[in-house]
Amino acid sequence: MKKRYRELYHLNRDLINEYKIRSNNHNALLACLKAVNQAIQRAGRLRVGKPKNQVISCCRDAIKSNNINALFRVMRGGTASS
After folding, report:
1. What is the pLDDT of residues 7-17, one digit of tens each?
2. Where is the BBS2 hairpin domain positioned along the sequence (predicted)?
3. For the whole model, what pTM was predicted?
4. DSSP assignment of 6-54, as one string?
């Protein structure tokens, strides 16, 4: 009986440790996404009206296509074709 409780204790400890790792990774991901979103919003606030919306949508498209260079180009210049 002691052996089974010990096994259960170790299994429970492993599950809790894995959960903590996943939770920390999730929180780090959320913090990074928040920082990226804030940077995109700041780049958009430099412009007014239609150009603002274009910059924000181009930034989001660059993120979707995983094109970091285009993201930086859009944030700096305001257009994806620069």
Report:
1. 999 999 999 99
2. 1-45
3. 0.72
4. HHHHHHHHHHHHHHHHHHHHHHHHHHHHHHHHHHHHHHHHTS-SHHHHH
